[in-house]
Amino acid sequence: MSDYRYSVRADPARNVVYLEQAGHAEREDLLRLRGDYVRALAALRPGFVVVHDQRAVRSFSDQALEVGLELVAVTDQHGASKVIRIAPEALLSRTRTTRVLVSAQARYADVRVSSAEEAEEALRQHLAAFGS
Question: Strand pairing partners for 75?
């Protein structure tokens, strides 16, 4: 049994979706997340922002990373303007997140920060600049 956990929460008033992940993800885990994520995106408008907290992620299986490519495509298709990724530098290399984003040719801006406070400040600045 996987120790993977996640949460997805949409804030339609701010046009933001919050994702949080923890543990080691297998393909089936990310397939469940994808379903909840797509349902949350239905409440948002194009130009939305994703605040993605990955601080408690340990790793992703190779098969889970393939679903990660699909998540990038879904994010693009729904018209994201930015993803604010809360992740320590070590996680980016350990999970190969950058490879996934490059392979998927994400069209949205992707910003890495190291704390929830930095993420909220980046979100505040984005919303102020774009009037979302």
Answer: none
